[in-house]
Specification:
Helix content: 40-55%
Number of strands: 13
Structural class: alpha/beta
Number of helices: 15
CATH architecture of the domain at 217-373: 3-Layer(aba) Sandwich
Strand order of the largest sheet: 3-4-5-6-2-1-7
CATH superfamily of the domain at 217-373: P-loop containing nucleotide triphosphate hydrolases
Shape: flat
Largest sheet: 7 strands, mixed
Distance between the termini: 21 Å
Length: 452
């Protein structure tokens, strides 16, 4: 028996539609007492996944809303339990009243991620698919959404289930021969499994290599705009955002602190930091801003070094370009092309773009270059790892498989190879949730929103 949980799944903002979701053994009974179908009869008499139109009342019989309700019976529901959803008008007051009514009849407030956690615990999805639910909600680009949808459909599960199944066969074959020597069982030879182990290693290597791109796909690429004061840094931030986020004036040193925005440039998600102009100064506040600018530059995966194209190149500009050259990736952005073009730039191997934040000239080309620098991993959507837990599990499984393969090549006895294979199975079990610890499970679902 499971207690009944309930939550507003659509948040408390005003919207056209708001949903109150229930799950647990008493979900249908509770909603049956509150909802009166216009078609007559009781709600419970309707089949699963049917939208029923009617009146929603509170526990005392007062009318709350005219809305829709749908039931999904166990085990064929999202959570694997009896569930009900009230699709109300999206007034926070109505939704709160509906939630209070189901609480009055015995439901309790759902914890963050508890619906999806129940789906995992009831075998409706494995852990990689459950994590994909949070990823698809949090996705800020079409590519991130597509990858999360692929994971939700089981793309990673299919990869690891094949390896897990093969290792299960290998282990069971070995133990069958060992435990029943008198039975007519095919002889166990390591050579017969070498090709499959090598194939599993290749699969895990490709899966593990996708994480470097996956964490940037999901979290965004740390990027910093640097340059001397009044070079056009804040104007560039405003131009790529599409609105005035940073104050822009002709007075050098206007920006004295870092401004961080998440945005898409060329379809690539960036955590873009606009920094204070880099220069020596006696102003204590500006000096602290310059210090933060250098810290942002040191942490950035991408640096946009902005040079004022309407004036002469200075020693500060040269130093800024040299600093950018030490970053993992960098682009020299020559700004203010609408006011003129600088005749010569310091020699650099960095790509150089001319832009005008006023006219928009060069912004699309800048985005195309960023997309070229940070291409998506060349793997199908859904097979890109996006969180450290998954990547660590794959890494451990890979190390065990590589050790097993080395043991075969080194002529080790089967029991040594089996020890490594069973270690790989344990790691893959943690990835899918077969053997995951309760504290890890709780930590995973804590990052979900309430109602999901």
């Amino acid at each position: 028996m499971s207690d009944t949980i309930a939550a507003i799944s659509t948040g408390m903002q005003i919207s056209a539609i708001g949903i109150v979701r229930l799950s647990g053994d008493g979900a249908i009974e509770i909603v049956n007492k509150l909802f009166r179908p216009y078609s007559g009869g009781a709600l419970v008499e309707h089949g699963s996944r049917q939208l029923v139109f009617g009146e929603l009342h509170d526990e005392n019989g007062a009318l709350l809303d005219v809305c829709l309700c749908t039931l999904s019976r166990a085990p064929m529901s999202y959570t694997g339990e009896d569930t009900a959803e009230l699709q109300c008008h999206g007034s926070p007051a109505v939704l709160r009243a509906a939630l209070d009514a189901v609480f009055a009849l015995g439901a309790r407030q759902a914890l963050a991620g508890e619906f999806t956690k129940r789906a995992f615990l009831n075998g409706r999805m494995d852990l990689t698919s459950a994590e994909a639910v949070a990823d698809i909600i949090d996705a800020e680009t079409a590519e991130a959404a597509k990858n999360a949808a692929g994971q939700l459909s089981g793309a990673i599960s299919r990869k690891i289930d094949g390896i897990y199944g093969f290792l299960t066969d290998l282990s069971s074959h070995y133990h069958a021969v060992l435990d029943y020597p008198d039975e007519d069982i095919e002889d166990f030879t390591l050579e017969g499994y070498k090709t499959q182990i090598a194939a599993a290693i290749t699969t895990l290597e490709r899966l593990g290599a996708s994480y470097s791109g996956g964490k940037l796909l999901q979290g965004g690429i740390p990027a910093a705009i640097i340059g001397r004061p009044n070079a056009g840094k804040s104007s560039l931030l405003n131009a790529v955002l599409g609105y005035d986020r940073a104050i822009v004036t002709d007075i050098p040193g206007t920006t004295r602190d870092t401004i961080v925005e998440r945005l898409r440039l060329g379809g690539v998600l960036l955590q873009l930091t606009d920094t204070a102009g880099l220069r020596e100064t006696d102003d204590e506040i500006e000096r602290l801003g310059v210090m933060r600018s250098r810290e942002a530059m040191d942490k950035a995966e991408l640096v946009l070094a902005v040079i004022d194209g309407s004036g002469e190149i200075t020693a500060e500009d040269v130093e800024i370009i040299r600093s950018a050259e030490r970053a993992p990736h960098a682009i020299v952005v020559v700004s203010k092309s609408d006011l003129g073009t600088v005749t010569s730039l310091p020699e650099t191997k960095l790509p150089t773009m001319q832009i005008s934040s006023v006219t928009g000239e060069g912004i699309d080309e800048l985005g195309a270059l960023v997309k070229q620098i940070f291409p998506l991993p060349d793997v199908p959507a859904g097979e890109i790892l996006t969180n450290a837990r998954q990547a660590q599990a794959v890494k451990r499984a890979l190390e065990f498989m590589q050790s097993a393969y080395s043991a075969i090549l080194g002529g080790c006895t089967p029991d040594i190879v089996l020890t490594e294979a069973e270690g790989a199975m344990q790691a893959l079990g943690e990835l899918s949730g077969r053997t995951v610890r309760e504290d890890v499970t709780n930590r995973i679902f804590e990052r979900f929103c309430v109602g999901k």
